[in-house]
From TrEMBL:
Required cofactor names: heme
UniProt KW Endoplasmic reticulum keyword: yes
Name of the featured protein: Cyp3A
Superkingdom to which the source organism belongs: Eukaryota
Gene3D superfamilies the UniProt entry points to: Cytochrome P450
Membrane topology type: Peripheral membrane protein
GO molecular function, one term: oxidoreductase activity, acting on paired donors, with incorporation or reduction of molecular oxygen
Length: 525
């Protein structure tokens, strides 16, 4: 090629110049926003032009990085997830503003993954936005009311029967129990029965398709592909759209979504043929379609008040969810409710095994209050020490160690002017380890959750289920499920350390996921 008829540039050099040009453009693109926090007067670690601050997360893991940054920069700081500026807020007064007082400006979560998810996944409650979210949230919230949870209790106890058989077997054989597998099977069975009315028995069948497909959402290869493209090659979003349109599966998630769609469609058909027969999530939605307007009747239910649903009035007048919305929510319940509950229960069992004196207190409470009765919605409410133990477990190992919100408009919080579209991260895990609120934060101490201790502490320093109108919609099911599981186990067995139990427990760099956890169970006399 000749330039201005003067210099003849050889082909190899043309390629080099093209590559250098592309690289420079890429670096400019990735670092374009890296001055955001400097302009806002907010401190934080210096970003690398391509990685931003992502290298810290990759090297040290999410929890350690956020804890280190919180300790170094305090309760407000800024970080860059490659090219995306993320404002961290950890000050309880500011968090109350973001999550409750100024909720109208922070209704939605981050949309960084929106262009990469399949359209069905974008219908999940976690992803949808504004009035669409309000409408779906109002429709599904009554599913978790006291009345519905009472109806679901036998389903939870049925799943617990299976794991009690499993423990009995292992105790007879003198074997340790792999807690992740065993408890994961239980929470999977509970979600399968409470969401879809299915008796899956994944506890005795590790190859169960439900287990396989639910795990696809946590598949490390799929997550790696998604994270690489979202954070490093965002301009390739169109490839995901084209592949989705052509039915090409880039990640295992697509195949699993199709599986859940088929199961949901079948379950919905059955429920439409025999309305009123089923008390699971899909049955409740179908009953609402038929005019059993549960949501209206249960508007005064405590769940509505707890979740701050008064904030969530939607202008939408549509009566029911579409087929796609039903499938998306039922699938989401698997994804959101399986690992979170299983991991929390595993961490709790671990603490009961390594602190026998705490376990003894709990055994005493269960024996005194329940006197050998099967646990149910009403009698587990009397177990205040059990709730303290669950809360302390979730303080040390919150299943979601960070929450996020996105500013829907320009808004001022305290003296910070947050521009429309900015992502706000809430480092729950780091706040819950701050000695200012939690003396000796590494220590497992359920006494931190006595009513007096709670009354003297700002509620925004403990948020394992999030806070405000967009908190966890399944919180009450999760707590009920965990309480029933613990009671059923402790009425017969006591968890103890075995030579295979690693102390301290090893967790994944990706968050609060126990890596290997083996415990022994001894029969109570
Ligand atoms: C120990 C168990 C669980 C923990 C720790 C947990 C934690 C959380 C957290 C932290 C959030 C985000 C809240 C926020 O942004 O303020 C959330 C949202 C959500 N959770 Fe849970 N969760 C658990 C169990 C469940 C279960 C059993 C279900 C359903 C069956 C469920 C369904 C959801 C849904 C649908 C959302 C999105 C809510 C919305 O955007 O409106 N979760 N959960």
């Amino acid at each position: 090629m000749e330039v201005l008829g003067l210099v003849d540039i050889p082909t190899w050099l043309q390629w080099v110049l093209l590559l250098v040009g592309l690289l420079v453009t890429y670096v400019i693109y990735m670092s374009w926003n890296h001055g955001t926090f400097r302009k806002m007067g907010i401190d934080g670690p210096k970003p690398n032009p391509i990685f931003g601050n992502m290298r810290m997360f990759i090297n040290d893991g999410l929890n350690k990085t956020e804890l280190d940054m919180y300790r170094k920069y305090g309760k407000v700081f800024g970080m860059y997830e490659t090219y995306i500026p993320v404002l961290y807020i950890a000050d309880p007064a500011l968090l109350k503003d973001v999550m409750v007082k100024e909720f109208r400006s922070f209704v939605n979560r981050r949309d960084s993954f929106k262009n990469f998810f399949d359209s069905e996944m974008n219908l999940m409650l976690t992803q949808i936005e504004d009035d669409h979210w309000r409408f779906v949230r109002n429709t599904v919230t009554p599913t978790f009311s006291g009345k519905k949870l009472r109806q679901m209790t036998p389903l939870i106890n049925n799943s617990a029967d299976k794991f009690m058989e499993h423990i009995e077997q292992k105790v007879k054989e003198g074997e340790d129990i792999d807690m992740k597998k065993f408890i994961g099977g239980f929470t999977m069975d509970v979600i399968a029965s409470t969401a879809f009315g299915l008796d899956v028995n994944s506890q005795n069948n590790p190859d169960d398709p439900f287990l396989k497909h639910a795990n696809a959402f946590n598949d490390s290869n799929s997550i790696a592909v998604l994270v690489t493209v979202v954070f490093f090659l965002p301009f390739l979003a169109w490839i995901f759209k084209v592949c989705s349109f052509l039915g090409i599966k880039i990640t295992k998630m697509r195949e699993s979504l199709e599986f859940f769609t088929r199961v949901t469609d079948r379950a919905l058909k059955e429920r439409r043929q025999t309305p009123g027969k089923y008390f699971d999530f899909l049955g409740i939605l179908v009953n609402a379609e038929k005019g059993d307007d549960t949501s209206a009747k249960e508007k005064e239910d405590d769940v509505v008040k707890e979740n701050g649903a008064s904030e969530t009035g939607s202008t939408w007048t549509r009566k029911t969810l579409t087929a796609g919305e039903n499938t998306a929510q039922a699938t989401l319940f698997f994804v959101a409710g399986y690992d979170t509950t299983a991991n929390t229960l595993s961490f709790l069992m671990y603490h009961l095994a390594i602190y026998p004196e705490i376990c003894d207190n709990l055994l005493r409470e269960i024996d005194d209050q329940l006197n050998g009765q099967e646990p149910n919605y009403d009698n587990v409410a009397k177990l205040s020490y059990l709730e303290m133990c669950i809360h302390e477990t979730m303080r040390l190992f919150p299943a979601a160690a960070r929450l996020d919100r996105m500013a829907g408009n320009d808004v001022t919080i305290g003296n910070i002017r947050i521009p429309k579209g900015m992502i706000v991260n809430i480092p729950v895990g780091a706040i819950q380890m701050d000695p200012e609120y939690w003396p000796e934060p590494e220590k497992f101490d359920p006494e931190r959750f006595t009513p007096e201790a709670k009354a003297n502490r700002d509620p925004f320093v403990f948020m394992p289920f999030g806070a405000g109108p967009r908190n966890c919609v399944g919180m009450r099911l999760a707590l009920l499920e965990m309480k029933i599981a613990v009671v059923r186990i402790l009425q017969k067995y006591q968890p103890v350390k075995s030579p295979k139990t690693e102390v301290p427990i090893k967790i994944s760099k990706m968050g609060n996921l126990p890596l290997d956890l083996y415990l022994k169970f001894e029969k109570r006399t």
